[in-house]
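Researcher: We're teaching a course module on how sequence relates to structure. For the next exercise, students receive a sequence and then see the predicted structure as tokens, so they can try to spot secondary structure elements on their own. Here is the exercise chain.
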Amino acid sequence: MSLVMGQRPTNVTILNAYARVWSDNLDDALPLLQRLAGERPHLRLPFHAIELAAIGDFLVIAGPAEERAKYAHASATVVVDDLDAVHAILTDADATITAPPTPSPTGGFLYAGHADGVEVEYVQWTTDLVGHILEQGTPADLAASNRHQPAIGGSID
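Model: And here is the predicted structure for the students to work with:
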């Protein structure tokens, strides 16, 4: 979204929000979360010295405790449609930008401390990733749209 000089954005679209789950080992954490979410991870990647996986509404942050601690200050990960607009809204609301907009393998992110003390990671995905994850749907979405049909099998392996 491009802003005309002096124009302030009024809102953004929140595409997804993740509860953060912390683990020493990603492969150990995933089986239970796959059973709970009813799907496989829709995103999995290394990021610096940690590994990330998104499954259902969980974002697993895995790796050594000292590396995970670098990201523990944020209480949630919120995926938005326009990181520039979020940045402008946060700045206008006197939020503290603790990590400025930064490119990442999935698009871009920033960290912001709200005036009430809550810190949140805001992420904007690439267009391809939005299409892959949100527009095509996940196995859980497909299952929800076919509730009238009996489930086939009890495992997602």
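Model: If you want an answer key for the exercise: Helices lie at 26-37, 65-68, 83-92, 127-135, 139-145. The first helix runs from residue 26 to 37.
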